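Practice problem 4.
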């Protein structure tokens, strides 16, 4: 199978690893895009997925070309910080982050819900409630 893949012009690289980082100092979605861009452009990084809401970065990389230390150093050069997440300690932290995200979503609905309800009569029936 390996030979067939290589003969077709592709290569199998069993050296890919995955790592999850906590990303510190991000204040907006643009920050996440910046960090993602820096990681993605590094030699040996196959894929870098950032989630601004959870402040996490999941990176798939070739351990023969780049190391987590080099990723941290590159990201620190643009004033962000990567903290490696240990796989065994993520459960309690994930629950805490989920609850934080859930409360943010509830607040967003609390604020935008009345505005949306106020706009529906005008959008559907042309009735203006104010003004």
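Answer key:
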């Amino acid at each position: 199978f390996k030979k067939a893949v290589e003969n077709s012009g592709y290569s199998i690289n069993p050296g890919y690893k995955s790592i999850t980082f906590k990303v510190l100092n991000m204040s907006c979605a643009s920050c996440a895009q910046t960090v993602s861009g820096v990681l993605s452009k590094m030699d040996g990084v196959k894929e870098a997925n950032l989630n601004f809401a959870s402040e996490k970065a999941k990176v798939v990389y070739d351990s023969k070309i780049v190391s987590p230390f080099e990723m941290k150093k590159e990201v620190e050069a643009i004033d962000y910080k990567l903290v490696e997440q240990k796989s065994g300690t993520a459960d309690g932290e994930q629950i805490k982050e989920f609850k934080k995200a859930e409360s943010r979503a509830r607040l967003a609905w609390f604020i935008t819900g009345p505005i949306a309800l106020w706009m529906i009569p005008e959008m559907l029936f042309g009735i203006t409630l104010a003004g």
